[in-house]
User: Fold this.
Amino acid sequence: MKQCKIKRVGILCMVLICAGIMGSIPMAVTASEKGFSIQVVDDGRELPANQEYAGLTCNIKEIYSEKRSVMASDGSESREEVMTMNLNNIWISVPDGGTRAFGIPIFSTEIQSSQERETKDKLHHVTGYDCPRLNDGIDAARKEILDGYFQKPLERFLSRYPEINPMEREYTLRLTGGGCTDREEDDTSYWDLYYALTTLSEEGESVTVATIDITKVVKARGYSVTDDAHYRIWSAENGLWRLLEEGADDLGRIWVSQLPEEDFCREDAVRAYVEEKGAGFDYLLPSGADLDVEWDCHKEKGYWYDYLVWKGNASLYEITLAIPLMEEGAGGWYMASRIRKEAADKEICEHTLSVMMQTFRGERYVHRVREGESLWSIYREYQGQNTGYEFSLFLKHSGVENPNLIYEGQYMEIPWQSRN
Assistant:
């Protein structure tokens, strides 16, 4: 009968590997009757003693459907139904029909076929149980998990997905985070741990198929809690679908994210930043893919902003990175798309990214001065939307330092349309 091996990879083992003496130390191994091979990895990292909330960094203020003029790749313009949303300090629209998934990165939209949507609904599953063996603190729980605590629960969980041939795969259960929380404001204490279960696709890409969170509440509002630690295993539908999807059917993924510490207003600074990073932004290159990418950069003119656009090929995907050159102080934002090389219909993905680039703008409603415009012509362009707003007030609140000197490419605020 085939046996599974759970390899214990702790910080001590990592040190011994580096020292070149790992061969003389036996690995902790347990056997499973079902034959699932799961390697548990804990890199020994120190988890925060009083962690702060590290959830969504995206503040969703508003979302609605509207019609906007968008330009197609052939230069023609048409009115299109879009979903517009306010995220943090920007506005952006996506073509209607794209499914929006708020999370990390800040915002993403994925166009799903009906087959993908139906399959993901069937793949969604969450299971959870009390686990008294993990009650003795976060460090003791990490050791129990490293010793194979989740072997049986994960075997039962993976057996729900015969479509991916789960017994024929090798898996890695890796610690991804966690920590202790002690809140003075409500006298509450708890600890939690997070793990990701990954396997490899046929092309060698690391794919997450499930995540686990473990929580133990020690004290709630000053009262001791006697409940056991509790775990939940969540299916990762995107990863499971990735193992099932034919490359030709891929419709692509597009996302926008913020780099709060950056200010992408100068072209030379943006180019230097990307050259330093090698376009290796988070979520841009898939784990396990070939990172040696040839990037081609060009500049595109847009309605709100000009963009620096990088295009390149990884081993599995065609990737696009677009960075808007925003007004000073607007922050650092980037958009990206990823689609399988063998995808039969790339137009949907390309059009979605194009619409996002055309509609992306800072929260304060700004106008980008075009050649031949004057403050009076700009005022008249927007006046129909607020006939009671006098030109003198427009001059006062537009943010233009010298009303007699405006130039092409300058950004100015339309006061009555600003959203604070």
